[in-house]
Design brief:
The protein is of the alpha+beta class. The chain contains 5 helices and 15 strands. The termini are far apart.
Length: about 250
């Protein structure tokens, strides 16, 4: 349903705004020393509504056209300077608005501590690169392992949605894909066990995830499916698998 009163009011406002005399506004932006500032952003608000946005040229100048007469607000911004707000009354015809910006204070940084005792081993470069890029489904760093201080590796992966665990009669903890099951040759549906790799070497099938202490690890990567596994490791995997858990040991 259309409100005739609302439509009429909007039409009257549109006619009134269109009927207002227009002004041409030359804005100049400079610093306290009088040097022109190129590339300053000027946002114009007229009668409570955003009207126009322009940038200053190499001479620190910008021109606004067809500006409705009356009160207009300018907000001027440039990197390295404090934003300036100016309110002016625009007259029909030509108008000149000079704006002076003050330099912003340089940010103060807290003390930075740099640890340069030794470089992480080159064999861990790929792990650190993938971690920085967020390429693995889940990635756990040495810092997180130390913070959580678990007794078992499986405890570190309990909150990873793509990983489930099963324990066989010998006490081995096997990780399997949270995405579903696979069918054996006898038509039995069984958990799809994930491959385990230590320092780039695939472990034998049915190797327990808790094959070492978390204290011995530099990091852990979880790749939930074939599409996420790095090509260099995917080509090494053999047999049925539904993802990969890569363990990376610490340097001694």
């Amino acid at each position: 349903e259309v409100s005739l009163v609302g439509a009429a009011t909007a039409a009257v406002e549109s006619v009134r705004m269109g009927a207002l005399p227009k002004g041409l506004v030359d804005v100049t932006v400079a610093d306290r020393a009088g040097h022109p500032l190129a590339g300053a952003m000027i946002d114009v608000t007229a009668r409570g509504a955003s009207f126009q946005s322009v940038h200053t040229d190499s001479a620190g100048r910008a021109q606004l056209t067809q500006v409705p007469s009356g009160r207009v607000e300018l907000r001027v911004r440039r990197i390295g300077y404090r934003a300036g707000d100016v309110a002016v009354e625009i007259e029909p015809g030509g108008n000149t608005v000079p704006v002076v910006l003050d330099k912003s204070d340089a940010p103060s940084l807290d003390t930075v501590r740099i640890r340069g005792d030794r470089r992480v081993s080159s064999r861990l470069d790929d792990f650190e690169t993938r971690r920085a890029r967020g390429e693995a489904t889940a990635s756990i760093s040495r810092e997180e392992i130390e913070k959580r201080n678990p007794l078992l590796i499986s405890q570190l992966l309990q909150n990873v949605p793509s990983v489930r665990f099963t324990e066989d009669l010998t006490g081995r903890v096997l990780p399997y894909s949270g995405r579903g099951y696979v069918m054996k040759s006898n038509q039995e549906m069984v958990p799809c066990v994930m491959a385990i790799m230590v320092d780039g070497v695939q472990m034998p099938d049915s190797t327990s995830l808790n094959l070492m202490s978390p204290r011995d690890l530099h990091g852990i990567e979880v790749f939930a499916g074939a599409a996420s596994i790095p090509v260099k490791y995917g080509s090494m995997l053999h047999g049925q698998w539904c993802g990969l858990i890569a363990l990376w040991t610490r340097d001694r």
